Amino acid sequence: MNKPKFRHAPPRAVAMMEALRGLGYSTATALADIIDNSIAAGAKGVDLTFDWNSRQSRILIEDDGRGMSAEELDSSMRLGDKNPLDQRADSDLGRFGLGLKTASFSQCRRLTVATVGQDGPQCLRWDLDVLAASKDNDWQLLEGPDDSAATLIAEFGARSLNGTLVVWEVLDRIVTDGYRDQDFLDLIDRVERHLAMVFHRYLEGSRPQLRLRIAGKAIAPWDPFLSGHPAKPWHSPAASFPAMPGVEVECHVLPHKDRLSKKEELSAQGPEGWTSQQGFYVYRNKRLLVAGSWLGLGQGRGWTQDEAHRLARIRLDIPNSADAAWKIDIRKSTARPPVEIRPWLAKLADETRMRARRAFAQRGQVPRTRSGEEVSQVWQSQRFSGGMRYRIDTDHPAVRAVLDDARGLAPQVLAMLRVIEATVPVQRIWIDTAEDRETPRTGFAGEPPAAVMEVLTVMYRNMVTLKGMSPTLSRNRLLLTEPFQNYPELVASLPDDPKELDKKK
Question: How far apart are CA 308 and CA 317, in angstroms?
Fold first, then answer.
């Protein structure tokens, strides 16, 4: 067998580095990737500093981890020095050995990393402008800081017993033409919101695993699931998939905005808003990878993020040993479930979506009394072979009272109800809901008590005077009738003698 011929074909340094800048990081996702390294190094605190100085602006990330030896720093600064197929520690948040470099280059042209570990202070630097000016096309990893950061690096080495400092300079992908200090401040706000979400499970609790600070101010965790909120209509116990150890799912339906304070509502909507934050939240070692996605599940082309399911959020934990099976990318921002687990996830998601849709449509109100008795509803949804349709319940007390008294007009009344059922403006309601991001007001919402009382009086008089029901039974029946279950005080004020109602007019 002939020995195969080959050519030595190393990548051109400048071309490779510039290509890696286009992986699609935002500043927030790039910083999260740097913080992953700090967590892997056992850091308890990470400080971010945004130093505004127009084109000379820089961003610093400093941690109190164990630092790196000279050999470890050299390895961390090289591209492709670690094989993504190698087995990693269970707590390791990395995989490809590229995050530090690709995340940094996506934002800046000069990356300096200083560390204090077992070998004392060490510092290495990549400078894309130096590479571009090189005539031998060599991979020139520079020792020591640039003059612009020399004092900063010296101060870090003098005060730190251990830890690592990452410095981004020449922020050409951030500070572009027309970029102002207010834009920099807005960027800091976006970064804070993103990090509060991505690392919320590290930041939570009275003794958090990690402290993140921006300019000395602690970042508060953002919990997507409103854990422990008393108005949450439902959440499931944690469930595991037997064939995939380490995979765990917990389903949540958040409260409708009507059950939240204004502050809670603004917080719970998340960085991207209620609709965009629905779906699966995929975690790897408690670090959030995907923040709201249906992961391509659902029939046909998959479920989309819509208003009706905005209250559905599902926590999905996977181990880092499953990176290849779940197709985790370099930016740690995408995940695709393996084929064998998709039906199980879809079933859990379908149940959560159904409950979320119900909570959204009912404005967070459960159609039962406080004692658990079922409330009689006017409209009923029916599934049939052609889809979904809506029908008026002719046994609803308000409808039944008219039909019983209609006698010869009963067929006309039923025909009228049938026309109303056949012409429910579903599309118009859906468009209005999508445009206004809110369901139309129902159940006398926004109307004065007098308007509710006017209808209550008619129904109560009919029950007592014409139907011969006792006042107590009539009031109890009204409390089990939509929408009057929401007005117990008005129902309780109805007198035993209906004639007294006329005197109150």
Answer: 25
